[in-house]
Amino acid sequence: MFRISKIKLCFPLSTFTKRYSSFQATKSILDKAAIDGELRVFIVSGEVSGDKIGSRLMSSLKKLSPLPLRFHGIGGSLMCKQGLTSLFPMEDLAVMGVWELLPHLYKFRVMLKKTIDAATKFKPHVVVTVDSKGFSFRLLKELRARYNKQRLDHSPVHFHYVAPSFWAWNGGESRLGGLSEFVDHLFCILPNEERVCRENGVEASFVGHPVLEDASELNLVRTCKPQELKLEGLSLSKDSLPSEDSTVISVLPGSRLQEVERMLPIFSKAMKLLKDPFPNLVTLIHVASNSQVDHYIEKSLHEWPVPAILVPSGSTQLKYEAFGASQAALCTSGTVAVELQLARLPSLVAYRAHFLTELLIRYKAKIPYISLPNILLDSPIIPEALFQACNSSNLASILKELLLDEKMRETQVVAAEKLMRLLHPSEGGMSNSIHCNDLETHRYTPSNLAASTILSYAKH
């Protein structure tokens, strides 16, 4: 079960109307765009979570901008619904890891050149990259170099949404300084990131975590029994309909094909081990908005050992309905760990990678956890099964305990309240650079906050 209440603004909207003094030195982005009669935004996202962030930012820009907007770049289905025609499928960029990336280097280089050429031809006033720092930073760096080489007077302003996880790696902070050469402003989604970025010469603002927008979209309190799950439009395997005595587990294998291919077989074996202790086990398999992942999971379903319902992406309401009908969740490490905390659903985070990537993580990481809730709370609230510990017998054992141990479950639910407060900007921690003339008439969301910063920004 889960409970979601409307996010309350814990500080006056007048906070947003303060302007960072240096912004007044030159014309804003809107002033320059007004000359052309439109605001051109080149926006790039390389993965599912970024597609959601990008689409919401595009929607906020359309609501807040006094000028018509034109978008171009790379994105997924959600960004395309907001008016983007993607240069190529977003899934082509969704590769994670170090050694996993090597076979794709030539293809990435070709896509990078195509993207730079398209951006230059588009003549944007703004370039926004969302997460996917490997591709995004190379794009921004080479795009800035091209504009400097051509000595163009009206080079676009560069924004990057989601700060790199410098806090997770040894020497991470020391690499921040170089970002200011090709990133004009960084949107941070975690507390304290803004302060550290500014201390290292990178202009930044904390806008809040994107998962807060899930809560504001739902703005309701709901509990859901397994048999109440709305099944319209869902893909069902034989005998998969949940009943009142079903044990329901949400399974979230990831958003990239590479990680789903690695994780889903392990998850499948874990479910097989849980069949005996939980004979009425039903799984809700959440399918990311990635056609390659969708096809792979559909193909794998005939070997799945327990009844399964496929939950498609695209509907925030449906996703949280599925969480609400579940007693626990098994997920691959990622943004979903925060979403499960928002849903107050006890969960287990798992992660495997190429063995050389795992060795690098062990060597370079300076924090003991991989899931964001544990990192922010500095406590192993959510059990993690990482690397060699991510095996079917260990996953089944932890899930069994998570389903039966009420104290263990309650610990996660209680911690979720504290986590949500940490992810929300407070009045005291809000950057003075946040500004928008119209924001008094719009509710707070991270996307509205980011959009208002873009529209009022003046490069100096």
Automatic annotation (TrEMBL):
Its EC number is 2.4.1.182. Transmembrane segments: none annotated. GO terms for cellular component: membrane. InterPro entries: Glyco_trans_19. Keywords: Glycosyltransferase, Lipid A biosynthesis, Lipid biosynthesis, Lipid metabolism, Transferase. SUPFAM superfamilies: UDP-Glycosyltransferase/glycogen phosphorylase. One of its GO terms (molecular function) is lipid-A-disaccharide synthase activity. It catalyses: a lipid X + a UDP-2-N,3-O-bis[(3R)-3-hydroxyacyl]-alpha-D-glucosamine = a lipid A disaccharide + UDP + H(+). It holds the Pfam family LpxB. One of its GO terms (biological process) is lipid A biosynthetic process. It is an enzyme of class 2 (transferase). It comes from the Eukaryota. This is lipid-A-disaccharide synthase. It comes from Cardamine amara subsp. amara.
